[in-house]
Structures are given as structure tokens and as C-alpha cells.
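User: What would this chain look like folded?
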Amino acid sequence: MFADEPHPDQHTIETPEQMSLDLPMAGIGSRFLAIAVDTLIQIGIGLAALIVVGLLGAFQLLPNIQQFSAWLVAGLVFLVFLLMYGYFAIFEIIWNGQTPGKRVAGIRVVKDSGRPLTAAETIGRNLLRIVDQLPGFYAIGVLVALLNSHNKRIGDFIAGAIVVREASLRELKPVWQTPEAAARSGPPLGGAKLSIEDLSLVDTFLNRRHNLAPDVRSRMAHQILNRLKPKLLLPDDNSSSVESILESLAYERRSAGNS
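Assistant: Here's the prediction, encoded as C-alpha cells.
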């Protein structure tokens, strides 16, 4: 709808409301930082486990260990596999696309549509690290990432995922000018319940509404409000205009994020 060309480091999503949302892509450097931090954590967990096993052996708390050597080896192989691949899947499922390393680097895994990955997609994406790591040090993964504009590795292509830079609420500053006191007057509307994706949608509309034809502007504002209504606490006798409600919601959500 808008003539703006997407930035080469951005992934543009066309929403059902005919609006464009730009997600800043994570670069090779930030992804390398994330994997470096996660690898250090994995090494620390592995060393802690070895120390525990060593102490149990030293204090003879593992009697007749020779009788269970085959089971012990199988258990260790499973634990190594779980540590190398389950670590990423478990954290990304629990933390909505982030591991400790990704949190440090300020990046997150999402679907190409901008929505979170399902548990199955997350597990499949991380199992393909086995291929991406060949022949060592993520060589194939890095090579594939360098050959495409979205820095995707093989697991990302299979899962339909991208890694984006996390935009904090403080970075989502609108260029629209409305007196803050007026936007915050009246009872809360439930803006604090909106997600970052919701806030991005509202801000995009408020930033670009003056470039829209009046009928398109009105229709789009109503479409956005109707989409957000299930999360809101709108009074039955509300007399505010749709755009005023969207402005109030944006201020409420941003205030909640900065508090």
C-alpha cells in the first residue's frame, strides 16, 4: 500500500489491515554473540554435571557402576544430545523464541509472519542444527546464512522462521503529537494487555494516517480497533473517536512497558 521500499535489513509483513510492519533482522554478528553465550552456558552445565558425577564416584555413592556401564553410556549420550539441542528448543518454547544468549544479544526467533513458532516448529528447527553445524563450528549454517538476505540457516528455512532484533517499548516512539494528559484521561482501556506486535500496528497507523485517504483512514482505524477489542476494557457509553482510543491505548501500553 505504501511506496516505501523495505530496508535490506528488514522483513516487511503485510497485515490483514493492509498495513506494512517492518521487523528489523538480526545480523550474523548478533546471532554469533547469542550462540557464543549459549555455548558457554552449555559448557558450564556440562562441567557441573561431570563434577557431580565425579563427586558421587569419589564418595562411592555409585556402587557397582561396572554392571550398568552400557546404560550409563547410553544415558550420557542422551544427556549430551539433550544439552546440545534440547537446550535451545526448551528455552525457545518457554521464553517465546529466546534463549539466554538471544536475550543477551537482543534477538528473537519468530515465524515469517511475525507470530511465535509452535513447539513442533521450534523442535524441528533446532534438530536441524545437526546439519547446520557440519563439518564444525556451524560452517554450513553460516555459509547458508551469508547466501540469503534474511541471514537464514537451514533450520530457519524448514521451520519458516526468521531471527529479528528485539525492539523495546522505549524504541517504539511515535511521531504523532497528541497531548499526553488528554490521551491518558479517563479510566484505563486495557492498553497494558497489548503485545509489542499490537503496539507496532497501532503506531504504524498513527504515524501514517495523515497520508491516507479519509475513507481508507477511517476504515483502517475501525479494523484495528475491532481486532484489539477482545483485549480491551471499553466502556459501553464510550464517546471517544476511534483514533483517540488508539492513541490512549498506545500511551497506556508504552507506559506499562516503561514502568
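Residues 28-165 form one domain. If you want, I can go into more detail on any region.
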